[in-house]
Design goal:
The complex is a heterodimer of chains A (307) and B (187). By secondary structure, chain A is of the alpha+beta class. Chain A has a six-stranded antiparallel barrel. In chain A, strands 11-8-7-12-13-14 form a six-stranded antiparallel β-sheet. In chain A, strands 16, 17, 18, 19, 20 and 21 form a six-stranded antiparallel β-sheet that branches. Chain A is elongated and about 80 Å long. With 187 residues, chain B is mainly β. Chain B contains two helices and 14 strands; from the N terminus they run αββββββββββββββα. Chain B has a seven-stranded antiparallel β-sheet. A six-stranded antiparallel beta barrel of chain B has the order 9-10-11-14-13-12. Chain B is globular. The chains are: A alpha+beta (307), B mainly beta (187). Chains A and B meet through helix 1, strand 7 and strand 8 of A and helix 1 and strand 10 of B.
């Protein structure tokens, strides 16, 4: 509609309309995931009949989840698999005619861009919150040693139904999924990471992690020991627990051994150990350097896996 | 220049809304907000803002009036006041409910800072519709103040803060309250 008018269009109103329109583009791709003891979160229709959602609660279990669809109807979704390290669950709903989301490209994203967090509340339906992209960075690792392709932090106020929901750009494309990160701040898992998780879970039913079957405790190395062995390290990881027939026991580790290096990487905290135990290392032999009875010993461990 | 158009529009909506927002003082100089609903002196606020029979009302131009309370609905937490003043700038109430994701601005006196403005969006609409929830940060002193669209139309009266959300009573319920008063021949 073109009309000659002396009053210039209100750009603010146009912005408001476009934000609501961007949200309308994802509205029918968002489901509410119900939880008995918790408030529940949201899930995103990622691929044909495949949804990805945040796992809520400490000990997730069960083969299915109760979900609320955009039309308000309640349905049961099958749990295809879980990613415990990222608290994600992949769900399948049969024969939905709901649209899937359009992932956005990370290359276009800039600090300062407006973004909307979108989710579905089990009773009130669509919900949203406005924010800016306040921080953007390269890949980062979670405490469990999982690599996330990009660090995206929106300055969005967290409301429970937004957990597991989508961060939407002003065009209605999905930047990623909103989760609660360190210090209860919202972090967004980028679409590429979600794609990778969904691929792995559809392929294997779970996310595999390398596994050694040991309990470790950081210990300070005494000065005399460091001098006698000519060590740079000040801290090692003492083996305090060994799983029977686990990969570490089979590799010859003993309780009381102090681990210094794993796969040629110095390890003085558990995070570094997890970093070594990436999925690609499963089934591979890795070298371990350790102190046993005051002497440096090298052993080889074949990395096992844990789902 | 196109560059400052957005801020220009925002400033205009803000100024208009500020003109229609009043301060309402309670017994111990606690302050709440109110919305000028008609140029005949009708003011809408929250029931919980009122602690006195004739509350003192201060306009944006600093004129002061003692108001008559002419309507009260504890259930909706709404109160209607009347002042004898001229040259009042009344708000334009919205005729439709806003959609989730629309931008909103709120004016009020959070913690005593008069006519402070905040921006956010519609977070959700609860069934009824009973509440418009916004992702706006409110504080005591915002109660009774206007929540408006980017066109400057008032969609609700800021009333509660619950779990970090701003809850506003929708205009339709305010109109309902006013209609009941009119039926009794009061307003």
């Amino acid at each position: 509609m073109v009309t000659a008018t002396s009053e210039p269009a209100n750009p603010l109103l146009a912005l408001s309309e476009s934000l609501a329109a961007a949200l309308a583009r994802v509205e029918h791709s968002l489901i509410a995931v119900r939880s008995h003891r918790h408030q529940g979160g949201s899930g995103i229709h990622w691929r044909n009949n495949i949804f990805i959602a945040a796992e809520i609660g400490r000990h997730p279990q069960g083969e299915s989840k109760s979900v609320v669809l955009p039309d308000g109807s309640v349905d049961t979704a099958e749990v295809v698999g879980r990613d415990p390290a990222l608290d994600l669950v992949v769900l399948r709903l049969k024969d939905t005619d709901l649209p899937t989301v359009t992932p956005s490209s990370l290359d276009q994203l800039r600090v300062g861009h407006l973004a909307v967090a979108a989710g579905r509340h089990r009773e009130t339906g669509l919900c949203a919150s406005l924010g800016l992209i306040s921080n953007l960075g390269g890949s980062w690792e979670t405490l469990q040693g999982r690599t996330i392709e990009a660090y995206i932090r929106p300055d969005i106020t967290y409301y429970p139904p937004l957990l597991g929901g989508a961060l939407v750009d002003t065009q209605g494309a999905v930047i990623g999924m909103n989760l609660i990160g360190p210090r209860r701040q919202v972090v967004t898992l980028p679409a590429v990471t979600l794609d990778r998780v969904v691929d792995a879970i559809l392929d294997q039913g779970h996310i595999r992690r390398g596994y050694l079957g040991i309990g470790l405790q950081p210990v300070e190395l005494p000065q005399t020991l460091r001098q006698s062995l000519d060590l740079q390290e000040t801290t090692g990881l003492m083996v305090i627990n060994l799983e029977a027939d686990g990969p570490a026991e089979q590799g010859g580790l003993l309780i009381g051994d102090i681990l210094l290096q794993l796969d040629h990487h110095p390890v003085d905290d558990l995070r570094q150990v997890r970093r070594v135990l990436r999925a690609e290392k499963i089934g591979q032999p890795i070298g371990a350097q350790l102190i046993r009875a005051g002497q440096l010993v090298a052993v080889t461990i074949t990395v096992g896996f844990q789902s | 220049m196109q560059r400052f158009e957005l801020n220009h529009a925002l400033a205009r909506v803000t100024q208009d809304l500020q003109q229609s927002t009043v301060e309402i003082y309670g017994a111990e100089q606690t302050v709440g907000a109110g919305v000028i609903w008609s140029d005949q002196g009708l003011i809408v606020t929250n029931a919980h803002v009122l602690t006195q029979a004739q509350p003192r009302v201060v306009l944006a131009d600093q004129r002061q009036f003692y108001a008559q309370r002419i309507g009260l609905d504890q259930q909706l937490d709404l109160a209607i006041l009347k002042i004898k003043a001229e040259g009042l700038q009344a708000v334009a109430p919205a005729v439709t409910m806003p959609r989730v994701g629309e931008l909103l601005i709120a004016v009020g006196h959070p913690l005593g800072t008069t006519r402070a403005v905040t921006l956010g969006m519609v977070h959700q609409i609860t069934p009824g519709p009973r509440w418009i929830c916004a992702d706006i940060h409110l504080a005591p002193g915002n109660s009774g103040g206007p929540l408006a669209t980017m066109a400057g139309q008032v969609v609700g009266i800021n009333t509660q803060i619950a779990a970090g959300q701003a809850l506003a009573v929708p205009v339709a319920l305010v109109e309902h309250c006013l209609a009941r008063l009119a039926n009794r021949g009061v307003a």
